[in-house]
Amino acid sequence: MRIVTLNLLARVFADGAARHAAVKKVLPDLRADVVALQEVHRGDDFDQAADLLGPEYTVVDVPGGDPTYGGECLAVRHPIVAVHALDRAVEGGPARATALAVEMAGPDGAGPLVVVHHKGTFEVGREHVREQQALATARFVTDLAGDRPDLPVVLAGDFNAAPDAASIRFLTGRQSLAGESVHYLDAWTAVHPDLPGHTVDPSNPLVRGGEMPLEPGRRIDYVLVRCGTHGPLREIADCRLILTAPVGGVWVSDHYGVLADLR
Fold first, then answer.
1. In whole angstroms, what is the distance from residue 46 CA to residue 54 CA?
2. pTM over 0.85
3. Range of the domain at 6
């Protein structure tokens, strides 16, 4: 099962049409089973996700989104069993806790699997909001799993927080929040424990030329695998960064994508 998450950088920035064309040359060939996209335009005038991936995928939107800067979605290549959405207020708004869960039948009967697109607010100084969002998503998954403690669940998306942030520490089982704890295994760390894996990298000219010109480099895009009592509920076979170099001379985004293979 191949999971990809990618922040496309909204089409209103940095010659979005050229960047879209560059992504389209690469993304379909990855043959991902699930693709989590951020800053993706999905409108009556143009459906960016559908154009990138084609009719083989069913695309479902995360609640919220912005008509100018885009929103988030999950694109799934296998039959969908159920869809569940989270959308509620958090203290210190206007950001909300939003997430989308798609329960799917895996390839060759290797299911079910639930993939959850989690969203963390982007402002660097609002980790207290990201904590609430992470806690809300964790509770959302717990309620969804119900009496299925071994239900495999994958969290993916642009969480807008580095691995040492409280929201990520909570999701990866290294601290509690509000007296609660969960444990998801970070696919990148499982495969590359000694590498930083920055997904926002100052060597990328779209980072230096964008709204984060002094960004020192962080890993803020993730694929996480839910753990049961004795460890992860799916084996992480591989994890790597994608779109880390220009495609035909075009940098596609100010984020690198993350690809994880599970079995």
1. 13
2. yes
3. 2-262
